[in-house]
Amino acid sequence: MKIICIGRNYIDHAKEMNSPVPTSPVIFMKPETALIPKNHPFHYPLFTKDLHYETELVVRINKNGKHIEERFAHKYYSEIGIGIDFTARDIQSDLKEKGLPWEKAKAWDHSAPIAEKFIKVKDIEDLNNISFTLLKNGEKVQEGNSKDMIFSIDHLIAEISKYFMLKIGDLIFTGTPAGVGSVKIGDHLEAYIEDLSMLQFKIN
Ligand code: MG
User: Fold this and answer.
1) Where residue 141 sits, what CATH number does that domain have?
2) Residue 91 sits in which domain range?
3) Which of 5, 48, 126, 194 has the most CB atoms around its CB within 10 Å?
């Protein structure tokens, strides 16, 4: 399986990064090894001094497809979850400056913790109005809503599948809202969809 991530899908986040608002989705990938094995602790990586959380709604693909039209995209997923697109911000800034690819900043082992449980789309009232939040040490640091996505889930699936065949089990990280920030060893993160606590773990 593969993990496809969308950069700058919320205007307020693009602004906080001093990045232009994209006119088509910014796409990058993480390998399967970016997931964390069940019950495995999260460790602060040795190669960064500025590890940032980015909380994102995650779509799990449930049907293989290529060149999917936007109007049929809803047939290719039935569950929404939440995850953290961990980013070594110091490394990313350096790579961006040099015009180099982002993998060392974004795609390393365990850089994509996700909630074990997903929510069925049929149990979600409005896909374009899903609120989600991240608490750091009990304090709200990120608050997003799918209604603020620049590109909707269905649009993302159409765009991604022009380039990459989507396969059952693939995950799409749909972008982070504003409020990204750093973590340190000992911090506790907890991510919510609406008022459901979906993912909680400590930085070791
Ligand atoms: Mg991200």
Assistant:
1) 3.90.850.10
2) 3-202
3) 5
Q: Ligand 1 centroid to 44 CA: how many Å?
A: 18
CA 57 – ligand 1 centroid, Å:
10
The pLDDT tens digits of the residues spanning 120-159 come to 999 999 999 999 999 999 999 999 999 999 999 999 999 9
Phi then psi dihedrals of residue 20, to 5 deg = -65, 150
Distance from the CA of 126 to the center of ligand 1, in angstroms?
A: 23
Q: Residue 138 in 3-state DSSP?
A: coil
Mind listing the pLDDT tens digit for each residue in 7-33? 999 999 888 888 888 999 999 999 999
| Residues forming a β-bridge with 26 | 7
- This prediction's pTM: 0.97
Distance 53 CA to ligand 1 centre (A): 8
Task: Indicate the SS3 state at residue 173.
Answer: strand
Number of domains in the chain: 1
